[in-house]
Design brief:
This protein has a single domain, classed as 3-Layer(aba) Sandwich (Uracil-DNA Glycosylase, subunit E), CATH 3.40.470.10. The protein is α/β, with parallel strands linked by helices and 199 residues long. It has a six-stranded mixed sheet with strand order 1-3-2-4-6-5. The protein starts with a helix and ends in an 8-residue tail after the last helix. Helix 1 runs antiparallel to helix 5. The mean pLDDT is 93.
Length: 199
């Protein structure tokens, strides 16, 4: 595999684009969608991980560009970051039909690509957005705590990656603010937990 991060990530993205064994591949091609690999600073301290792309994301091939993306951009602005300063991706790289939750098999299929993205970028902090992303990341780093996101959101959880110690900071998914306006203040408070990791 190529040495530099950009080449490694592009090789990985190409593999995702050609993932014909994915049950979501046909849905992608039938709807003229794109795979959504990830984007941002490939040397970022902070990596933001969602669960799966929505319709706008699949149309543009970019993560978090719809309504939830606008909320995410605003939240990052509270700690003086642009979205280009962090790296943003999802566990599942293709849109599930009707925005349903990713299935276990889909997560299992796409997970190795996310794990490799983390290995290549080597972030100091991972901010999983929402329950699915939180559970996957905590389990991946053997920091699995049997709590709900309502109990650990905005908490710094220390974990060990192959390249050193990292912090996992679970956050509510930005879309949650649409369904529960009370969570808007919580999201604003929780994003401040990332402030110490801003270079």
């Amino acid at each position: 595999m190529p040495n530099n991060r950009e080449a490694q990530l592009e090789s990985l993205a190409e593999s995702v684009r050609n993932l014909t064994e994915s049950p979501l591949y046909t849905y992608r091609t039938e709807n003229d969608y794109a795979a959504v690999f990830g984007e941002g600073n490939i040397h970022a301290n902070i990596m933001v991980i969602g669960e799966a792309p929505g319709e706008q994301e699949a149309k543009q091939g970019r993560p978090f560009v719809g309504s939830a993306g606008k909320v995410l951009n605003e939240l990052l602005g509270l700690i003086d970051l642009e979205r280009e300063d962090v790296y943003i991706t999802n566990i599942v790289k293709d849109r599930p039909p009707d925005n349903r939750n990713p299935r276990v098999g889909e997560i299992k299929l796409y997970a190795p690509y996310l794990v490799q993205q983390i290995e290549i970028i080597q972030p100091k902090v991972i901010a999983p957005l929402g329950r699915f992303a939180m559970e996957f990341i905590l389990k991946q780093f053997d920091a699995f705590e049997k709590q709900k996101i309502s109990q650990v959101h905005g908490t710094v959880i220390k974990a060990q990656a192959t390249y050193g110690e990292i912090a996992v900071v679970p956050l509510y998914h930005p879309a949650a603010a649409f369904y529960n306006p009370k969570l808007q203040d919580t999201l604003r408070e929780d994003i401040l937990t990332l402030q110490p990791f801003v270079a």
